[in-house]
Design a protein that fits this description.
Blueprint: H1 8-11, E1 18-23, E2 26-37, E3 40-53, E4 57-60, H2 76-85, H3 89-96, H4 99-115, H5 120-124
Antiparallel strand pairs: 1-2, 2-3, 3-4
Helix pairs in contact: 2-4, 3-4
């Protein structure tokens, strides 16, 4: 088998149509495309779209910072019941989705289960309804 600077475990986490580069011990994900120059094909890298960590998987650059967030007070008992009903669901989601995506899906499903339908735009701005 060939030698790679990026371990197979990390390469397996990259989104389709991207390339991973190891830089100073960190793994960065870049868009790329195949271009034809002088009758030959070569790969042309575009912008960096995220990074990969072994613990968290692929983390996109988009939406990683939360500014002006507010905390809302919620009834703990409702969420305790929902969490008890959903045991194992997060583990199943993480088998099929990147860790950050699985966490978002799980959180949205949990909020939907307890609070009813919530408009997604409002959730990330800290509004309660």
């Amino acid at each position: 088998m060939g030698r790679y600077s990026v371990p197979a475990k990390v390469r397996a986490m990259k989104p389709k149509g991207t390339m991973v580069k190891a830089i100073s011990g960190h793994y960065y994900v870049y868009e790329y495309r195949s271009v034809r120059e002088g009758g030959r094909r070569r790969t042309k890298m575009n912008r960096c779209i995220g990074r990969i960590t072994v613990a968290e998987g692929y983390l996109s650059n988009a939406g990683t910072k939360v500014a002006n967030s507010e905390l809302a007070c919620v009834e703990f008992g409702q969420y305790a019941i929902a969490l008890a009903c959903l045991q194992g669901t997060l583990t199943l989601l993480r088998k099929h989705f990147a860790r950050a995506d699985a966490d978002r899906i799980y959180a949205c499903a949990l909020i939907h289960f307890v609070e009813g339908f919530q408009r997604m735009g409002g959730l990330w701005r800290g509004s309660t309804r």
